[in-house]
Amino acid sequence: MDLNSSLDSPVINDPVPSNKSRLGMNSNLRAYSQQDSPLSQVKYSLSNSRKSMGGLDDVRSNGWLDAMKASSPPRKKLPKGSNAQVASIDYDIEDYYSWMLQYPSALDSFDKIIELAEDKKIAIFLDYDGTLSPIVDDPDCAFMSESMRKTVRSVAKYFPTAIISGRNRDKVFDLVKLTELYYAGSHGMDIIGPVSENLSKNHPNSVKSTDEQGKEITLFQPASEFLPMIDEVFRTLIETTKDIEGAKVENHKFCVSVHYRNVEESNWITIGQLVHDTLKNYPRLRSTHGRKVLEVRPGIDWNKGKAVEFLLESLGLTDRNDVLPIYIGDDKTDEDAFKVLRENNRGCGILVSSVRKESSAFYSLQDPNEVMKFLQLLVNWKRQHEKNQGKN
């Protein structure tokens, strides 16, 4: 990958293409103004819904509350020092290993994965939170270790590597700090990738430009027209959730995340209702569930799976039998990528989880530490492979 430039000049700012707005925003959406905004109606309707608990039936009846609870179920709490606690842990481990029969460890199955990669070009796609960094109570403190950063840099030296995250693309780069990678933020709605002459034909929202090092890149933002709506929803949810202790709302540029990890479970239904009522005023937006987070995003046919396909296309690795994409992720939003790779055995999906989950992945890893071990195995295998080829 030809992105070995200095970290002092990160490949992260949106380039400014000629003859277009900075974000390539469609002219019809530029006309979207505060005068047309339903923001005042949103605040009014939400203030009323918070006064009356009757409206919370919406969240119960449409399954939102069940989905919120299922996204990250709490472990059963047992009395300290009791044998029952030990028995419960043993039972969880037994249940997990039973689950691993369906989703074998990628570490234990490494030789099998390498067999699939024989005579093929490997492309690596990584989620960030829960994959390269541990899940923490404060998303702003989800730092990857220096050893993980060193490992990912080594991976990018040998394989085309991209990080596809729900976070703002700029924020992901600030956390990773590696210019050797490609980045896709907002679940793939904000991508910087390599230049491909065919992209502009197949994807009208692709803009060919240069980064701060003068290298040619492709900026792809298929949902740029939604930026004014996303900003309004962010400001609305900041206002309406401010009295809920532990609630955190983040603007990821093309989506809004409402975290309830630190919110008392008795208030989850209120969080869900506030998001639900906000979306009533924005029919072109939709909500999805992640690990103790509700996310509001544009209602377009785009997700992490589409982002993988776009990056493969930009790398010139589409419709080839000599390519093995590997995607590693831990959350529900990563399932779209797993499904893409499962179709016709196009690639290898690896789910990061220490608990039983249904998934479209083929393999599993328990935590970021195991992710790092797996990536190190890949690097060592590639080095040895190239060394052996040099001898022949």
UniProtKB/TrEMBL annotation:
Pfam families per record: Trehalose_PPase (PF02358)
Keywords associated with the record: Hydrolase, Stress response
Annotated transmembrane regions: none
Protein name as catalogued: Trehalose 6-phosphate phosphatase
GO biological process, one term: trehalose biosynthetic process
EC number: 3.1.3.12
Catalytic reaction equation(s): alpha,alpha-trehalose 6-phosphate + H2O = alpha,alpha-trehalose + phosphate
Entry keyword annotation includes Hydrolase: yes
Disordered: annotated segments: 1-24
Cofactor(s) the protein requires to work: a divalent metal cation
Metabolic or biological pathway, per its Swiss-Prot or TrEMBL entry: Glycan biosynthesis; trehalose biosynthesis
Family of the protein in this entry: Belongs to the trehalose phosphatase family.
Taxonomic placement: Eukaryota, Viridiplantae, Streptophyta, Embryophyta, Tracheophyta
Role noted for this protein: Removes the phosphate from trehalose 6-phosphate to produce free trehalose. Trehalose accumulation in plant may improve abiotic stress tolerance.
Gene Ontology MF terms: trehalose-phosphatase activity
